[in-house]
Amino acid sequence: MSGAHLAHIVRHPVKSAGYQELDRAALIQGRPMPFDRIWAVATETAKFPDAPEGWAAKMNFLRGAAEGSLQAIRADFDEATGALTLTHPGRPAFTGTLPADGPALVDWLRPLWPANRPAPRALVQRQDGGALTDVPDPFVAILSLGSLRALGQRMGRELSIHRFRGNLWIEGWAPWAEFDLIGQEIGLGEIRLRVEEPITRCVATTYEPATGQQAGDTLAALQSGWGHKDFGVYARVLNSGTVARGDRVEITP
Predict the structure, then answer these.
(1) What single string gives the DSSP state of each residue in the chain?
(2) What contacts 19, CB < 8 A, 6 or more positions away?
(3) Distance between CA 235 and CA 17 in Å, rounded?
(4) What is the pLDDT of residues 186-209, one digit of tens each?
(5) Average pLDDT over residues 115-127
(6) Which residue of 77, 111, 184, 201 sits 20 to 30 Å from the alpha carbon of 228, by its own alpha carbon?
(7) Distance between the two ends of the chain, CA-based, in angstroms?
(8) What is the pTM of this model?
(9) How far apart, in whole angstroms, are the C-alpha atoms of residue 218 and residue 154?
(10) What whole-number distance in Å separates Cα of residue 102 and Cα of residue 107?
(11) Residue 78 C-alpha from the chain's centroid
(12) How many other CB atoms are found less than 10 A from the CB of residue 201?
């Protein structure tokens, strides 16, 4: 694994509504990626009346597994001002400031969401300031470009990193080597992380982010090729510091 480095940093300010690539990020001990899934759009059947007090399951929100067209949204978010721009191949661009323009954002998303599912209700944020990621633990998601290429080769197509909604993409690891790191610590830029568990994937990864259309069964390819539906690993941030594209990855023996 020598020579491995950080190739991409990605966050998703609104859950299932846009991905944004960064050059660097300031990670915080015991927290997920800053401004990653800090907001989500709750549906009419969400299990909380207003804003969730803490973590809430993804079934409460608009999500790519329920409507793959959402996978095609791209985001440009300014954390200093709250300014957000979203683009989608089938919609005019959205521009606004969060959280003030939450109702306008919900209206922008409404045509992309199936009419036979619970309707979008409101943009929400956790009352405790936490993230609305898919799991309750405050993890960051680490993924491998080597594994992505191996999966793409099996499927006979090039795969976008944005199918998998990860945070930190590593170049230089052999395919699936990330699973061997579970329980170990790694160094990246100024921080250390402990790799905790694999990430089991859902149908959202079968959609092509450039179009929002289904294109290749990633889940079937993972199952037939490697006997599981896991892609990437969750890790816990052990100290605060900055990571940047190009940072080398160090593995603790």
Answers:
(1) -TT-EEEEEEE-SBTTS-BEEESEEEE-TT--STTSS-BEEEETT-SSSSS-SS---GGGB--TTT-GGGGG-EEEEETTTTEEEEEETTEEEEEEETTTTHHHHHHHHGGGS-TTSPPEEEEE--TTS----SSSS--EEEEEHHHHHHHHHHHTS---GGGS--SEEEESPPTTGGGGGTT-EEEETTEEEEEEEEEE--GGGGEETTTTEE-S-HHHHHHHHHSS-EEEEEEEE-S-EEEETTPBEEE--
(2) 10, 11, 12, 73, 74, 75, 162, 165, 209
(3) 23
(4) 999 999 999 999 999 999 999 999
(5) 96
(6) 184
(7) 12
(8) 0.96
(9) 9
(10) 9
(11) 18
(12) 20
Give the model confidence (pLDDT) of 16-61 as tens digits: 999 999 999 999 999 999 999 999 999 999 999 889 999 999 999 9
Tell me the two tokens of residue 238: 């052990």
Q: How many Cβ atoms sit within 10 Å of the Cβ of residue 59?
A: 13
The sign of the torsion formed by the CA atoms of 161, 165, 168, 174 equals: negative
> Could you tell me the two tokens for 176?
């699936």
- Of 95, 9, 84, the closest CA to residue 39 belongs to 84
| pLDDT at residue 2, as a whole number | 64
Q: Which two tokens stand for residue 242?
A: 């900055």
Task: Please report the domains of the chain, with CATH numbers, ordered by start residue.
Answer: 5-31+135-251 (2.40.33.20), 40-124 (no CATH)
**C-beta separation of 94 from 105 below 8 A:** yes
Task: Single out the residue of 180, 185, 210 nearest to residue 195, CA to CA.
Answer: 185
